[in-house]
Design goal:
CATH class of the largest domain: Mainly Beta
CATH superfamily of the largest domain: RimM
Strand content: 35-45%
CATH architecture of the largest domain: Beta Barrel
Pfam families: PRC_RimM, RimM
Order of helices and strands: EEEEEHEHEEEEEE
Subunit structure: Binds ribosomal protein uS19.
Main location: cytoplasm
Number of domains: 2
GO biological process, one term: ribosomal small subunit biogenesis
Strand order of the largest sheet: 1-2-5-4-3-6
CATH topology of the largest domain: Elongation Factor Tu (Ef-tu), domain 3
Keywords: Chaperone, Cytoplasm, Ribosome biogenesis, rRNA processing
Distance between the termini: 41 Å
Radius of gyration: 19 Å
Length: 167
């Protein structure tokens, strides 16, 4: 079974076993549609009993836990879904976990580096690309003006950089 990271447990909430989750998904409301999650590296399966929101966090109550002491051990653990439960994306839209690790080349087939991170808290996504030779990081806006082709199957992104974008 393959898993996809969807959130990080940041803290407990109250005394009845609820947890605060920082969502790692574009659609925070998708937690309401989920039935099961898997916690941490051991992938402990839990059933979602209740979901609500507080600012930019998701509060979850799992059927299996009823007090703070039972869930405290999960602080800073990641939450996962089974890959079969992932949502379908529109064309030309990709999961962040699919973009990370892609090799980036320019339209002349020159290697730029590897995507190590995707910044999402701005007007458009930005790919952080690490040059494996110089160890410099390049910030590539994820817009059609620069990104010409993405092949998740080949783990490859082709860009057409303007002068000064890659130095």
């Amino acid at each position: 079974m393959d898993f996809i990271q969807v959130g990080k447990i940041t803290n407990t909430h109250g005394i009845k076993g609820e947890i605060k989750v920082y969502p790692l998904t574009d659609d925070i409301n998708r937690f309401e549609k989920l039935k099961n999650l898997y916690i941490g590296d051991k992938k402990v399966k839990v059933t979602i009993e209740k979901t609500w929101y507080q600012k930019n966090l998701v509060i979850l109550k799992f059927k299996e836990y009823n007090n703070i002491n039972e869930v405290e051990v999960y602080k800073n653990e990641y939450l996962y879904i089974d890959e079969k439960d992932k949502i379908s994306l529109p064309d030309d839209t990709y999961f962040i976990f699919d973009i990370i690790g892609c090799k980036v080349i320019d339209t002349n087939n020159n290697e730029i580096g590897i995507v190590t991170e995707v910044l999402t808290n701005i007007s458009n996504d930005v790919y952080v690309v690490k040059d494996l030779h110089s160890h410099k990081e390049h910030l590539i806006p994820a817009v059609k003006q620069f990104v010409k082709k993405i092949s998740i199957e080949e783990k490859k992104i082709v860009i057409e950089p303007i002068e000064g974008l890659i130095e």
